[in-house]
Amino acid sequence: MAIIGKNVIENLTLGMYENSLMIYREYIQNAADSIDKAINLGILKEKQDQYTVQNTTDLDDKEKAQIDIYIDQKKRTISIYDNALGIPKDKFYNILSSIADSEKDKESNKGFRGIGRLAGLAYCKKLIFTSSYIGENKKSIMIWDGELLKNILNDTKNRISASDLVDKVIDYKTEDCDINEHFFEVILNDISTENNELLNVKDVCDYLSFVAPVPYAKSFIYRSKIYDFIKENNLKLDEYDILVNGNPLFKPYKTHLLSKGKTYDEIKDIEFKLIHSEDNKLLGWMWFAVIKFVINIPKENKMRSIRLRKENIQIGNETTLSKFFKEARGSTYFIGEVMAIDKNLIPNARRDYFNINETLREFEKALIPILNGEAYSLYHYANKVKISFRKQYDIIEKENEFNLKVQQGEFFDKNDEINAKKELEKEEENLSSLTNSIDKLENKYKENNLYNKVFNLIKEDFQKKDIESNAAKFSQQNTIKTDSISKNDNENNTHTEQEKSNKKKKYKAQELSKYNKREQKLITRIYNKIRKVLAKDMAEDLINKIQEDLKSE
Questions:
Q1: Cβ atoms of 506 and 418 closer than 8 Å
Q2: Nearest-CA neighbor of 453 among 331, 257, 292, 317?
Q3: φ, ψ for residue 39 (rounded to 5)?
Q4: What does the alpha-carbon distance between residue 122 and residue 144 come to, in Å, rounded to a whole number?
Q5: Residue that is last in its domain, among 160, 192, 216
Q6: Which residues span the domain enclosing 506?
Q7: Does residue 357 lie in a domain region?
Q8: 3-class SS of residue 313
Q9: CA atoms of 416 and 135, how far apart (whole Å)
Q10: How many CB atoms within 10 Å of residue 430?
Q11: Cα distance from N-terminal residue to C-terminal residue, the chain
Q12: How far apart are CA 331 and CA 541, in angstroms?
């Protein structure tokens, strides 16, 4: 007779997950499966989503399906509760004491291996399962002693078998309850001090908002477009009401993208793709946001990257699909989701990818041209457009800067002005070729609506910058003119002799009227030396400071 040692239990509990927060996902997916069954049996309301119209007249008489998570930091306790079917009393002990012996169908259930429910044992002293089945007046309670389990596992001299170990660390009892109650609750008592992250409500909410099968936030204006696509293509999207300490969770997709706390881009539309195998079998679908695609989206945007999901539960993390991009960083140019739907795309035990089979290889083969080809081409195209517009904008900026310097007398002398003019003319020689380059980029994908959107987004961005820049220059010029108007002249003589004198002052040192021409030439020579020795920005700063000091003396 084969002997299964106690270390199997360690691998399925203490060594199962690299991130302790994953236990929330395990208990949620079990609760979701039970909710689905309760809805099919007519015990709970059909989930109220954006693309399903309810016609049943008695829905209001039924309970609304809900998963409640309560975190008590003071008592160091976590509860995960659902109001679904529960487990019948005569099946409770066998189901909850068995390991990797689930009766669930892997093709239709989110959790099906029968090991995820033990995940909490690694992080608490007591793991308690409580359940009541509809129509029964008894609730069943099973307590797993996590502390005793760890002590036995750490005792190298104790050669107890896995089954004997389970019998030793569990306790079972029943209690009276209302015959109409139906629920299942997991309680983790006395969370270990080294796992305080499990009690951090914000961290838990942030994690579950992406991982769990929750709805899109109502503030995400494109959610209705996603739901419309689902309805039009006869697809399904599992969504559940999940609350943490009474606050509902939503996917944190937002319209605006941030860089250092400030908006630098925004979602202007979303695109969809159906993912088919070579024999035209539907394997999944995806959506992604239409943005400018000109930089890697900063990490402060929690929704960045294309996320992989099955039954609306995240598979892996934000980097899982990066291997399908020609460049690993490619995924972070995008925001979106790939929804795997084929029943043979089965999440592995850690839910960081799928079990390897023929369907997975078909799925990967279908993803490669989308992510490695189309997505790569799109953000590289966007980058070329951005560079071309940036160069064009920079030349126009330099023209404006030159004209403003002439007007304000910012050049040191005639040679300084001539040299600046020559440099500008060299830049202007490229302006025509740049304009042609931009026209070619615009025409290259003239028939492609997505590329047209991206091109126009980038174009509008630079036009906006140009308008803002010109407005700033106009304001600056106005300020200069206003400052030179005398406050002492009467209405018929508004300009002072000083202003008339200023019109003759073409170069920078001439503003220093208290110095004679010889001294002004010396100051100009000093300014020229500073410019040659220091970097441009440093030189300009230093020169301006000297100029202000000399004016105020």
A1: no
A2: 292
A3: -70, -45
A4: 11
A5: 216
A6: 493-553
A7: no
A8: strand
A9: 94
A10: 13
A11: 101
A12: 41
Tokens of 398: 């330099």
Final residue before a domain boundary, out of 216, 237, 260: 216
Coil, strand, or helix at residue 12?
helix
Q: What tokens appear for 237 in the block?
A: 């999207």
> Nearest-CA neighbor of 39 among 62, 19, 55?
62
User: Token match 């689930």: residue?
Assistant: 102
Q: Whose structure tokens read 């291996």?
A: 113
What sign does the CA torsion over 31, 37, 39, 44 have? negative
Give residue 80's Cα distance to chain centre: 26
CATH number at residue 36: 3.30.565.10
The reply to whether 504 falls in a domain is yes
The DSSP bridge pattern shows strands 138-145 and 124-132 to be antiparallel
Contact call for residues 223 and 50 (beta carbons, < 8 A): yes
The closest alpha carbon to 6, from 237, 235, 160, belongs to: 160
Q: What are phi and psi of 497, to 5 degrees?
A: -65, -30
10-residue block means of pLDDT along the chain (553 residues)?
55 64 92 91 70 44 85 96 92 83 51 63 92 92 89 78 82 92 94 94 95 93 95 94 96 93 93 96 97 92 94 94 91 96 91 94 96 93 91 84 80 79 81 86 87 92 72 50 42 45 61 78 80 80 82 74
pTM comes to: 0.78
Q: Read off the tokens for 6.
A: 């106690």
C-alpha 386/C-alpha 457 separation (Å) is: 10
3-state secondary structure of 347: strand
The C-alpha atoms of residue 15 and residue 6 are separated, in whole angstroms, by: 13
Structure tokens given for 205: 């909410």
The answer to whether residue 128 sits within a structural domain is: yes
Name residue, tokens 């202003």: 499
Helix H or strand E encompassing 338: strand 335-340
Domains in the chain, number: 2
User: Which residue type occupies 387?
Assistant: I
Residue 533, φ and ψ in degrees, nearest 5: -85, -40
| Cα distance between residue 133 and residue 103, in whole Å | 18
511 near 551, Cβ under 8 Å? yes
Distance CA(100)–CA(114), nearest Å, equals: 4
Cα torsion angle, 12, 15, 18, 22, sign: positive
From the list 282, 339, 280, the residue with the least C-alpha distance to 306 is: 339
The Cβ of residue 492 has, within 10 Å, a number of other Cβ atoms equal to 5
Q: Cα separation of 385 and 296, whole Å? A: 16
- Within its chain, how far is the Cα of 159 from the centroid? 48
443 domain-assigned: no
